[in-house]
Amino acid sequence: MKEDKKELIRETAIEVIANLGFHNATTDRIAAEAGISVGTIYNYFRNKEAILEYIFEVELDKRRTYLKKMQQESLSLRDKLERLLIMHFAAINENPAVGTILAREHPTPLHNNLPTTINDFLEGIPAQIKKLLDEGVQNGEIRPCNTQIIAVAIFGAVSSVVLHAVGQGCEQERVRILQQAASELVEFTFEGLII
Amino acid sequence: MKEDKKELIRETAIEVIANLGFHNATTDRIAAEAGISVGTIYNYFRNKEAILEYIFEVELDKRRTYLKKMQQESLSLRDKLERLLIMHFAAINENPAVGTILAREHPTPLHNNLPTTINDFLEGIPAQIKKLLDEGVQNGEIRPCNTQIIAVAIFGAVSSVVLHAVGQGCEQERVRILQQAASELVEFTFEGLII
Amino acid sequence: MKEDKKELIRETAIEVIANLGFHNATTDRIAAEAGISVGTIYNYFRNKEAILEYIFEVELDKRRTYLKKMQQESLSLRDKLERLLIMHFAAINENPAVGTILAREHPTPLHNNLPTTINDFLEGIPAQIKKLLDEGVQNGEIRPCNTQIIAVAIFGAVSSVVLHAVGQGCEQERVRILQQAASELVEFTFEGLII
Amino acid sequence: MKEDKKELIRETAIEVIANLGFHNATTDRIAAEAGISVGTIYNYFRNKEAILEYIFEVELDKRRTYLKKMQQESLSLRDKLERLLIMHFAAINENPAVGTILAREHPTPLHNNLPTTINDFLEGIPAQIKKLLDEGVQNGEIRPCNTQIIAVAIFGAVSSVVLHAVGQGCEQERVRILQQAASELVEFTFEGLII
DNA sequence: AATGAATGAGATTTCATTCAT
DNA sequence: GATGAATGAAATCTCATTCAT
Fold first, then answer.
1. Torsion angle, CA of B88/B104/B155/A65, rounded to 10 degrees?
2. Protein-to-nucleotide distance from the CA of A102 to the C1' of F19, whole angstroms
3. Chain D closest-CA separation from residue C20 CA (Å)
4. C-beta atoms surrounding B94 within 10 Å
């Protein structure tokens, strides 16, 4: 029961924040759309920011779990990246609002002081990608490169494509983009654009 | 004289907004750091949002001008992209704060109604990249691909690398990243990662 | 309880606005005199203007209700007007501040766009008077005349007398004027000044 | 020359204040519409309020002069009142904006402390009317009555009709009302409404 | 645990007025 | 005298958060 309410708030907040932006998403509005009262939100979250952090935390956990499971199989780097992207874009397709948030709601430097889950996500995911790339370089699967920069670039490319997809007015178009995105980006990543 | 003041506000606002985020950058703070009074800001800008728009407008103009000049030379796609990135990362290196803003301050959907310079930037630049890619596909310089997705991906990759670079505590590290970024990303874009 | 607070704000605002004028009556001041905080005002009113509108609305309702009740009795025009004025001046006597507001706070043309309760009052009451006059002319109780102009004139005469009365420094003088006003104005309206 | 500029400001201010209301009529706007700069206004007027006072002063002078001239002729009270109203409504017809201001821009009590020209007008004109009425009662031209109340009532009636007239969207309608108003109100004042 | 009215700090914006040129 | 950029006090309104019920 307790977790149901927290989950309700998370899900409602995702919709409201995706629609209005974090700053314009008032706690009153979130409460109203969740059919509860503002006070209740504060029984489950320290403050408004904590809702956003929790949203990132849940998504981060999903990806971490997926990664861990994937690490147990012995896959090529290419397969790993492809699976990861397929999983990610499928998740966004299921809940586009969450994609908007993950790709748009960067933390402001003011809150940078305290280590937050949002930073865990925005830095942790690229760090994971970097680790994969480093392994790939080690075992000769890919060429040596500045894996730090490339990892960040891949992360940014994915975020940007997500934002582009969920920004489509037409749902079918969004679905189409999200379905193509994984293979398109994997091919781009490995073969580049030259013929 | 008149334009000096507007320029002073723009430059100060860049610093303040980069440091605090647009929402936490109060008009009082911007005025104080510029050594002027709040009222003066409103002699040059309709409202606070207009400052942000003007920041994007100036940067957009720089890139547009550069692109136009570049189009007159007959360069390969690869050279075009490389020059563009070199120019971009050099600009960010000169004024890292501006990089933070360009890469972080996405408009919230609420303001999406009116077409703003910010959207011109966030949609216009990828559109330009897409045009370059389409030409490259046409003349056989690159392989056929979903140029829309790839353009968006490249734009996101660049933004993400900028944000990564300017987020470095150490200035030397930032400079190093920004210097490597162009060639690293161009190579990544054209040759991919496979050996 | 909820309506108590709204009523408290209305009553306090009447005093403050009557004393200082609508524009000089700050929300801070109204809140302070009501013993609440500014924010609370905005839990009950959309904005400051809405307080003024509500003041007019309540007064308009009182007069409308009174008129409706009066219409059910079959009275002469003269009796109707007399009763109306007696009721009006008695109400002002009970709460002189409200008289100041009704007679002084005309809306500025800027707000004229949206139909407001204030306009309902300033145009609706003369319209009601005109209707009474038209009936009087029809059934031969009064001479034919430009009922539109006369209705407006009567409304203005009453407002002016109210403003004159409530502007008296001495309370007794105010009471005296308000008690005489109805019969004086009715006699004036019907018999004029000639001997 | 000096007076030309002051006159220009007065005339422009009348239009702007009539259109927007005193409070919404900014000094910048008045200056812009007069084709001068804000600073110049302050060479001719102590402050913004002084412009409004000057507007009232000029109109008050016109009426006082007219009254004085009229007093030298030996006219009946009825003729005096009729001439006064004809003169007043004709003036409003020539410059409706001034009518709006005279009838709408009551001073807020805050400024009531200092004796202003605006109060001179709002209290002085009724006082003059009262004097006329008192004379009429004295020489038996009209019946005894509370001349104070009736004077205030007549003043209010006239103001209200002016406001009604200038509020007409259609110019012809405004002219028609202002032309009828004097005789209609004089007849009303002397004969009343009964048959 | 749930409520939602009350809070009040804080943000944006306006605009009458000044004063150096 | 004329200018108009600069000023900054002051006003309205918002909204995250609290707490008595």
1. 130
2. 34
3. 6
4. 10
In this complex, the nucleotide whose C1' atom is nearest to the CA atom of residue A51 is F16
- A68 CB-near residues (< 8 Å, 6+ apart): none
Q: What is the mean pLDDT of residues A135-162?
A: 95
Residue B36: CB less than 7 A from any atom in strand F? yes
CB D135 under 7 Å to nucleic chain E: no
For chain C positions 145-174, those within 8 Å of chain D (CB to CB) are 145-146, 148-150, 152-161, 163-164
| Tens digit of each residue's pLDDT (9 = 90 or more) over A68-88 | 999 888 899 999 999 999 999
Cβ <8 Å between C108 and D133:
no
User: Is strand F less than 7 A from the beta carbon of C42?
Assistant: yes
Cβ-contact B173, A148 below 8 angstroms = no
How many Cβ pairs within 8 Å bridge chains A and B? Answer: 150
Q: What's the confidence (pLDDT) of residue A169? A: 86
Q: Does the structure show a pLDDT above 90 at B175?
A: yes
Which residues are CB-contacts of A21 (< 8 A; sequence separation ≥ 6)? Answer: A104, A105, B108, B109, B110
CA A159 distance to own-chain centroid: 7
Torsion-angle region of B23 (φ positive above 0: left; ψ -120 to 50: alpha; else: beta): alpha
Asked if B128 and B67 touch (Cβ cutoff 8 Å), the reply is yes
pLDDT in tens, B33-83: 999 999 999 999 999 999 999 999 999 999 999 999 998 888 999 999 999
| CA atom of D164 to C1′ atom of E17, Å | 35
DSSP A106: P
